[in-house]
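Notes continue from the previous slide.

Worked example: a multi-chain complex. Inputs as given:
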Amino acid sequence: MPTKVIAGHEVQINDEGFMTNPQEWDKDIAVEIAHEEGIADLTLAHWKVIDFCRQDGISTGKAPTLRRITTAAGVSTKDMFALFPKGPAKKVAKISGLGKPEGCV
Amino acid sequence: MKKLLILGAGTAGTMVANRLANLLDENEWHITIVDQNETHYYQPGFLFIPFGIYSKNDVVKPKRDFLPSGVEFIMSPIELIEPEHNRVKLSKDGRYVPYDFLVIATGTQTHPEQTTGLQEHEWYKTIFDFYTVEGALALARHLRTWRGGRLVLNVVENPIKCPVAPLEFIMLADSFFHEQQMRDRVELIYATPLPGAFTKPIASKHLGDILERKSIKVEPEFMVEHVDPDAKKIVSYDEREIEYDLLISVPLNMGNEVIARSGMGNELNYVEVDKHTFVSPKYPNVFALGDAAALPTSKAGSVAHFAVDCFAENFTRYVDGLEMLPTFDGHANCFIESGFGKGLLIDFNYDTEPLPGMYPLPGIGPFQLLQESEANHWGKMMFRWMYWNILLKGQELPLPARMTMAGKWKN
Ligand SMILES: Cc1cc2nc3c(=O)[nH]c(=O)nc-3n(C[C@H](O)[C@H](O)[C@H](O)COP(=O)(O)OP(=O)(O)OC[C@H]3O[C@@H](n4cnc5c(N)ncnc54)[C@H](O)[C@@H]3O)c2cc1C
């Protein structure tokens, strides 16, 4: 399993750059991955979604799909695209240190 | 008598009724199956209707012809599942049916009303679906006189049942317009929420190359926000617009409302069950099979078939007090029609993405994985006969239920 140093921590990642151990995550890591993904500032609105995904991801063992986030966290799809442009569920999963969402099989 | 109740007599429900009627002792078990519909639809056949390859008669048969004589069939909408009370309420006469074991097989249905502009005044005029028999027939009529222009195929959101059907549709359209000698007057665009032609990387690359060769344009990561039926364009959440002359939509797929009403589903009304045994984590006497289950594999008839293979044996262990074995591996095996009398085949499971190779016999085939061939096309056409005559009746195919790596190339 490849590793990568993010915000000073060595973390395990898969070949698509998703962290594989959600326990290795912290908020500094989130900020740095967000930068890499083209999001300069994580606002309160971003954190609300990230917090939901962390909670949900850890309790279910998988990253939530876009529909799960919009239904359960009360954020509209439109806002999700504004906050995490281009593939919001994938992007927020990456920033939250979760695997890739399984939505599409 | 122990009571087994099956909800939904579609592909999965019918197969499991047949299989368990054979395996369980009829002196000890009473099996009941409920469906609101008298007619069984061969849904894979809907794909061929718009292009005049199949007619309605090819895809419908009475459900009763496929249910074993010992099984009680009740025709009624299902109103509510009450797992705390081990019973199900039917709409007809407000009747309650008690059970010892429950199999949920209510499938997934399309919801065009969930996308603004889709099912309005242009529905079945310039906007069609082919996931229902009505949509497929309306589109067939429309294509007979269509003069060409820009055809846009849009998948609203994943997951959908038969995730390869949109690809097949657009490739068959290419073939059809060639035959009509009007391909030069038709532009084909496939707008999908996926990052490419398919969900898994290797298959996506192979299929993407084929689409390119056929001059079919893919618009990836397109999540439709609304349809503007007057300006004839679809608009995405990130404000991209695609104009069309003819829009073919695969609307949002959701599990049946009865699942939501009963508080048993996730955000898309699919039932969470163990991915190897289909047992509900909450109710040890409740199972979900087929499209109704929230599992990370394709929603397809072939998957339902392999699932029933694994489930039926396991169920007889379970009712004898043994542990269920984690036998189901997410195995999916799908033919992909690619037009001009050819097709592809993909074979995969939870852990292994579709790879090139030969199937079912390593090196021999006769089917080729992830490559176009005429044999694959005939496989797909034979599938209808197998569906009605072998699969639905719960008879075994000479194919292993679990996926094998033999015959596959890992590069
Ligand atoms: C266009 C198209 C192409 C396809 N191509 C392929 C293919 O090539 N290969 C393949 O393997 N699969 C294909 N599929 C998918 C395949 O048809 C489905 O995956 C399969 O039918 C699922 O079986 P099921 O039993 O889970 O659901 P279904 O067969 O849909 O059955 C569900 C049943 O439940 C009943 N029901 C639901 N709710 C209620 C209620 N509240 N009350 C009473 N009854 C209810 C319905 O009436 C229905 O009979 C295709 C599907 C489509 C639409």
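Summary box: The mean pLDDT of chain B is 96. Chain B has seven helices and 24 strands.
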